[in-house]
Amino acid sequence: xxxxxxxxxxxxxxxxxxxxxxxxxxxxxxxxxxxxxxxxxxxxxxxxxxxxxxxxxxxxxxxxxxxxxxxxxxxxxxxxxxxxxxxxxxxxxxxxxxxxxxxxxxxxxxxxxxxxxxxxxxxxxxxxxxxxxxxxxxxxxxxxxxxxxxxxxxxxxxxxxxxxxxxxxxxxxxxxxxxxxxxxxxxxxxxxxxxxxxxxxxxxxxxxxxxxxxxxxxxxxxxxxxxxxxxxxxxxxxxxxxxxxxxxxxxxxxxxxxxxxxxxxxxxxxxxxxxxxxxxxxxxxxxxxxxxxxxxxxxxxxxxxxxxxxxxxxxxxxxxxxxxxxxxxxxxxxxxxxxxxxxxxxxxxxxxxxxxxxxxxxxxxxxxxxxxxxxxxxxxxxxxxxxxxxxxxxxxxxxxxxxxxxxxxxxxxxxxxxxxxxxxxxxxxxxxxxxxxxxxxxxxxxxxxxxxxxxxxxxxxxxxxxxxxxxxxxxxxxxxxxxxxxxxxxxxxxxxxxxxxxxxxxxxxxxxxxxxxxxxxxxxxxxxxxxxxxxxxxxxxxxxxxxxxxxxxxxxxxxxxxxxxxxxxxxxxxxxxxxxxxxxxxxxxxxxxxxxxxxxxxxxxxxxxxxxxxxxxxxxxxxxxxxxxxxxxxxxxxxxxxxxxxxxxxxxxxxxxxxxxxxxxxxxxxxxxxxxxxxxxxxxxxxxxxxxxxxxxxxxxxxxxxxxxxxxxxxx
Length: 716
What we know:
Elements: E1 2-6, E2 9-12, E3 22-29, E4 35-40, E5 56-61, E6 64-76, E7 82-88, E8 101-106, H1 108-120, E9 130-134, E10 143-147, H2 152-164, E11 167-173, E12 176-182, H3 184-187, E13 195-196, E14 202-206, E15 216-220, E16 248-249, H4 251-257, E17 261-265, H5 272-284, E18 292-297, E19 315-320, E20 325-337, E21 345-349, H6 356-362, H7 368-393, E22 399-404, E23 410-416, E24 427-431, E25 434-438, E26 448-451, E27 456-457, H8 468-478, E28 491-494, E29 497-502, E30 512-519, E31 522-529, E32 532-539, E33 542-547, E34 550-557, E35 560-565, E36 573-578, E37 581-586, E38 589-599, E39 602-612, E40 618-623, E41 633-639, E42 649-652, E43 672-673, E44 676-677, E45 681-691, E46 697-707, E47 710-713
Helix pairs in contact: 1-2
């Protein structure tokens, strides 16, 4: 049973005639504030007590709090019903700003506590947080971070959650609100209530990707010292323990999807029996590591209090015989319809990224080439040292020129291979902003530089020449200069990141820059000029395009193109084009689509459809009456009952000219013509008059039946 409280008082209680709401929906998501929305009728005793930015809403499930937050919107519709929208308490962290600062050699807990203290100093008591459990760590527990006037929530999510794979969890103990930063595995419980595909729990599922679904796997173990084929390496296989076959398969999956084979390596496994076990486990579990499930499932805890409910962060067992799948998925997102639980939706999926070490154990990539690359790096580094030594000790001299401005103040020193900067091709420039080196003359570009903000730009810094441990310990301990994360060039080697960026400067007023960043999962490019710039991020499963002076984004995934407004999240999604058509979203709602479909009773009939999803209240055609109009006038609208027009159906906003075509099978109500209302009734008439031949006459009577101004029956 669900309840809603407003400032501790009843607002909604099931089956109460006064304390009632309509269409109440709670949205919950990991590392997100969540929201609740509903319609509040005027008869509710708390109708006049809803105040934006003041009122606090609480949602209870069987007496346990599942949502607490602040009312942000409460607008009246045409019928006087207030449409109430509230955000969760994690959004309180949006109400404070972190100042510009540098933090060095800090643990995750120290940073979180520092930022929460700053937040608490800027907000009232009811919006304060206190540091709780922190179980995520940097390998050296020595974090190096900058803040630059971000909101506290953006700061925590970007600099701790995303970097350390951490998840924010709110706990309340003795009236105090604690913020935990934990791993996904520690966030929730192992839910005993399973979801079984094809069983009574699952109504439908969406976004179950089969692009990397395999029905057959060839396990490959450690490399053998001897190979039966000269020139090729041999590896431990499972033939000796698998009836002579080197592969494993799921018969159920093969029956549906056919044969789809892949090779998976475990280079630390030397025993065939152990290798077979790993292959079997991978076939039913590990290959679904990156799968995301969006589904509707009945939460049986609403019917039986003894059954565990689905909660955010829980690990839920999922079984699918057709896929050969048997594994648990964490609950990433919940959509709870308080008055209609049959419409509840869950998003299950594991967003934890594999580290280089974990990937190596599963051997999704072959590292023999990387070993060879390491040897090459060592040779390259020694060569570079020898070359630098020769250049510095073998110099035969050059030219030095000092330049001053019109007031005699020093501007720069130039060290060149020619007497003037117009002639020089090799230039070292020293000015108050740093030291730069150019091999393309005075105008640059300066691809190698050491700037005043502490940034060292190295054109030939090679991936693998600096270890992550040396970067985090030796280097940071010896260098105290500021390393600004917003500069246009940096080099960083970390557990799962190798990045390189290059800056091109052509003048004080106009800057043209381009950078390239490559990681194991991301390719990012950026081009900018002056204050305007565009960038593209290419991940293993999507491509994101954006602009720094425009908060609009385009994201390309497998078979789909998405349009976003002011951020990449479900609440910011506006449109998605895929094989089913053009899908439209608004404020986190899936409104509907324009696409193709086929007739249910006869799939030979194909057609174009305009589909309005359940959250969508209306579908309309509209136009601008004038060139300068700021809104559109509706001319034809379909509306649900209880919305703008009150009644279900099509509503006209202009005259309809049928051009003498027929309207068939019509029942007419409230007809009027020429300003006169239609009439219902019976009109008596004389149908015939005849002479009797004796000076008298006989006549016959009849009636004309009229309904809403239309003659429905008359004598023939």
